[in-house]
Design the sequence.
């Protein structure tokens, strides 16, 4: 059974699909950059003997958000394999 969101996405025109896929890919790429930057920041904090509790909590949130971005991107690729930018 198709979900309501799947039916809505299937009604999108080609330009909208391409734009949405591009956005999903950019979000995933941006997420990777933020995660890498946060990991470097944590390494610097640890090297200086600073407390990393809040930095690790932020990293955990970034990783969770990234999982959502990747699921969104992969979902769109499965629905519209012909529209990969």
Sequence:
């Amino acid at each position: 059974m198709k979900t309501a969101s799947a039916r809505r996405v299937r009604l999108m025109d080609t330009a909208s699909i391409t734009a949405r896929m591009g956005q999903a890919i950019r979000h995933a790429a941006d997420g990777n950059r933020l995660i890498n930057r946060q990991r470097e920041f944590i390494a610097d904090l640890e090297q200086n003997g600073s407390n990393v509790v809040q930095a690790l909590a932020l990293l955990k949130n970034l990783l969770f958000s990234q999982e959502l971005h990747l699921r969104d991107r992969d979902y769109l690729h499965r629905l519209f394999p012909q529209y990969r930018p």
